[in-house]
Design brief:
This protein has 344 residues and is α/β, with parallel strands linked by helices. Helices cover 39% and strands 16% of the residues. It has helices at residues 2-24, 31-38, 64-77, 93-98, 113-117, 160-171, 184-192, 203-210, 240-258, 266-269, 275-280, 287-290, 297-304, 308-315, and strands at 41-45, 54-55, 61-62, 83-87, 104-105, 121-123, 128-130, 132-137, 151-156, 176-181, 198-202, 219-221, 229-231, 234-236. The strands form five sheets. A five-stranded mixed sheet has the order 10-9-11-8-12, with helices on both faces. A hairpin with a 5-residue loop joins strand 2 and strand 3. Helix 3 (64-77) crosses helix 13 (297-304). The longest helix is centred in the first third of the chain and has 23 residues, at 2-24. Bound molecules: glutathione (GSH). Glutathione binds at residues 46-49, 90, 108-110, 156, 159-161, 183-184, 187, 201-202, 205, 209, 229, 231.
Length: 344
């Protein structure tokens, strides 16, 4: 049909230059400039999961996810305190990032395909490999999650937790009732008050939630892990420079651990003759400036916040109240799956 031929020609004329213009356009690199102009990094965090992100009584934020924000701030400003923390519920976190209310989300968020292809967001790295678990009262003498049929299960809304819960009970042919709440505090309160007999969330968060209960020792975390929860920082799509800064902050902290560079040994590292240590601390390679930062950006991160092991052990490791062993979050050289691409 002549009409359709004409239309397709017209479309080709209109679309080809438009597409070429899109691909030729430089990738928007506005986030770093905005952060520098503002003088502070705006970081979305969880409101209250001790060990991951929680404010002290004086309002100072600390935790594993908080330290990641501090590391990015240290990389940019050489000051780990130049961060404004924005507490966000599970249901609101991705909207806040999409809307530009925060520069990065560091809030025990699970990397899923849908969160990238549906929400226009990108996970920069996996800072904590986790999985979903269950907590029950010790007195129930439950040994495995397969005995949980008929349970009333407390979980947080707006999370992968609630979705996995439904999948797991359906796949196991078990009945259950979900009691969904809007925050970690509410979930713990509902469980402690007996509104549910089982609590489910990322296993790491369960270790933290247990500490909120009236009698933590009366509760056990079952050994079953029913899902993959790769947790990490999230950015908006379309700003490759910012994505690289967030991603390489995690990888720099891992590489530092692998090379034995910590906040205690950073001054020795600056005198090192080892090529990979010299590239890490920016004496060789010049990678920091190519990313919009200074060449000593990793020195700033390690001096002000520490390497991956220091951050892990300080916030959630076996010597803390949470007591979570490194497990699969060990470096690949120690039997784990934390593996950073090389700096070269
Ligand atoms: N990793 C899961 C769960 C994340 C989540 O929000 N977990 C709860 C665990 S109880 C939490 O951290 N809440 C923080 C809070 O409400 O303070 C996801 O990305 O959907």
């Amino acid at each position: 049909m002549p009409f359709s031929l004409d239309l397709s020609k017209l479309l080709a004329v209109l679309t080809v230059p438009a597409l070429a213009a899109m691909t030729a356009a430089p990738v928007a690199a506005q986030t770093l400039a905005a952060v520098k102009n503002r003088g502070t990094l705006v970081c979305g965090v969880g409101p209250g999961v001790v060990g991951f992100s929680a404010p002290s009584s004086s309002g100072r934020w600390s935790g594993f996810d908080v330290d990641f924000c501090r590391a990015v701030a240290a990389a940019i400003f050489d000051d780990a305190d130049k961060v404004t923390f924005v507490p966000l519920s599970a249901g609101d976190r991705f909207r806040a990032l999409q809307a530009g209310e925060i520069d990065v989300l560091s809030r025990n968020s699970t990397w899923t395909m849908g969160r990238e292809v549906e929400l226009g967001l990108t996970f920069a790295a996996v800072t904590f490999y986790d999985g979903q678990g269950f907590m029950v009262r010790r007195a129930r003498k439950v040994e495995t999650a397969l005995e949980l049929g008929g349970s009333r299960v407390c979980a947080q809304s707006g999370t992968t937790t609630a979705l996995n819960l439904a999948d797991y009970f359906a796949a196991s042919g078990m009945a259950y009732e979900a009691v969904l709440t809007a925050s970690a505090d509410e979930t713990a309160k509902a469980y402690d008050a007996g509104q549910c007999d089982t609590m489910t969330s990322d296993a790491s968060a369960l270790h933290s939630e247990r500490l909120k209960l009236a009698k933590p020792d009366d509760h056990v975390i079952l050994p079953d892990v029913i899902s993959k929860e790769p947790l990490g920082p999230v950015v908006r799509q379309g700003d490759a420079q910012w994505f690289n800064i967030v991603k390489w902050t995690h990888y720099a902290m891992l590489n530092a651990e692998e090379l034995g560079v910590s906040s205690k040994t950073i001054d020795d590292a600056l005198k090192s003759q080892k090529p990979d240590v010299r590239r890490l601390v920016g004496i060789e390679g010049g990678f920091g400036e190519k990313m919009g930062l200074t060449n000593d950006w990793v020195v700033r991160v390690i001096r002000r916040v520490g390497n991956y092991a220091e951050v892990y052990e300080r916030n959630v490791g076996v010597k803390t109240r949470l007591g979570i062993p490194r497990g699969i979050n060990q470096l690949w050289t120690a039997g784990g799956i934390q593996y950073a691409p090389p700096i070269r």
